[in-house]
Amino acid sequence: MSDQSEALSDLGEHVASSMPDAVRRFEVRHNELTLYAERDSIVGLCEFLKTDTICLFETMIDLCGVDYPERGRRFEVVYHFLSMRMNQRIRIKISTDEDTPVPTLVNLHPSAEWFEREAFDMYGIRFAGHPDMRRLLTDYGFEGFPLRKDFPLTGYTEVRYDDLEKRVVHEPVSLTQEYRNFDFLSPWEGMTSVMPGDEKGRPSASGDEEGA
Fold it and tell me: Which of 104, 119, 136 is a domain's end point?
């Protein structure tokens, strides 16, 4: 074990022993420390990480969602924090389902406001106590959550400007059948056995290679 991995392991032991009700387990892989935490304890855990003199993870780098539709708690919420004073990074993972909100970190880390709105917009993950829980990236009237793995690639609606009505209109997605015949890599037909240009490398009718 490298010195860095050993230091991260010691840090993980410190956090886990200090917050036993919040941390289920931790691991160090590729010189990165990951804590697997309880959803309802995330605020207390992050407050400890921010204020503890050994941790001092005062900067929130990122928050994102991950979708595992086969799980009962299909969503993981992944947090990344930086301790500039200790020159360390840490990752926290919690799990939740479609109906149970995650406690917000806005009061502890104001930068979480937009991160949490993005996770809501893309995955439908809700954050209890968030001051402005509305969509961030998608258009007005957007239906569904585009980064869920069961969301169709074409979406449900399309947006266009109608020059006759002089306004933006939302319409159901329609794909004209004649435009579904893609060249050579059609997902309906598969790749053709002969690609254009292959004939240049074929043996001649006599069985001799060209130019022999």
Answer: 136
Contact 55, 15 (CB under 8 A): yes
d(CA 5, CA 174): 53
User: What does pTM read for this prediction?
Assistant: 0.76
DSSP classification of residue 187: T
Which residues are within 8 A (CB) of 27 and not within 5 positions of it... i.e. 6 or more apart? 12, 33, 34, 36
Q: State which of 102, 117, 136 marks the end of a domain.
A: 136
Residue 210 lies in a domain: no
The CA distance from 58 to 52, in Å, is: 10
Q: Beta strand pairing status for 32-37 and 88-96?
A: parallel
SS (H, E, C) 6-39: HHHHHHHHHHHHHCCCCEEEEEEECCEEEEEECH
Shared-domain flag, residues 123 and 167 = no
Residue range 58-114, pLDDT digits in tens: 999 999 999 999 999 999 999 999 999 999 999 999 999 999 999 999 999 999 999
Residue 172 lies in a domain: yes
Helix 42-51 / helix 3-18 crossing angle, nearest 10 deg: 120
Q: Return d(Cα 90, Cα 36) in angstroms, integer.
A: 11
